[in-house]
Task: inverse folding
């Protein structure tokens, strides 16, 4: 199926688990953490994913950013209102902050540098670092994502775009971050 912005949504089940040792890596991600999509209207996208797929809103910033979850992770999907449609980034979860440092070191030793981070996002409270792969895709490695275990008592936070939320530790991302 396609969502309101034209993104293809594929539903799958019965995935076979593979052994976690798929070759030498400085850091082996634990799982795909989330995908962030650039959209025309965050609320319209959220309505689709809520009504059709059962996602729940975790937090949002004015009408420009929105995070949703389908399990205890604060978000598995996020939307940023930009006026154009494309994938912003995908994130891999790592064990802890020391793995972010290992990945940064590995990137440096192989001729790459971090684009942004390390830092800590407000929504989701996760630690992060961003870098580009050889094809120019934006990747995030992250850890310590907020867990929401009780949907009945959780109240999504409404962040104000004028307050610090992108990086609680420092500056917003560089110009080519969006």
Result:
């Amino acid at each position: 199926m396609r969502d309101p912005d034209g993104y293809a949504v594929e539903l799958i089940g019965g995935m076979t688990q593979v052994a976690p040792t798929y070759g030498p890596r400085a850091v082996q991600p634990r799982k795909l953490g989330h995908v962030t999509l650039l959209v025309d209207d965050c609320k319209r996208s959220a309505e689709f994913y809520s009504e059709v797929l059962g996602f729940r809103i975790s937090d949002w910033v004015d009408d420009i950013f929105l995070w949703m979850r389908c399990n205890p992770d604060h978000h598995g999907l996020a939307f940023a209102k930009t006026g154009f449609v494309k994938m912003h980034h995908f994130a891999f979860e790592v064990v802890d902050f020391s793995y972010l440092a290992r990945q940064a070191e590995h990137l440096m030793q192989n001729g790459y540098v971090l684009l942004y981070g390390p830092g800590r996002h407000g929504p989701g409270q996760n630690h992060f670092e961003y870098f580009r792969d050889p094809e120019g895709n934006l990747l995030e490695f992250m850890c310590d994502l907020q867990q929401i275990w009780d949907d009945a008592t959780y109240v999504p936070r409404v962040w104000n775009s004028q307050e610090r939320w992108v990086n609680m530790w420092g500056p917003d991302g560089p110009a080519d971050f969006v």
User: Anything to note?
Assistant: The chain has a mean pLDDT of 93. The beta strands are 31-39, 56-61, 65-69, 77-81, 86-93, 116-120, 127-132, 138-143, 157-159. The CA atoms of residues 35 and 90 lie 4 Å apart.
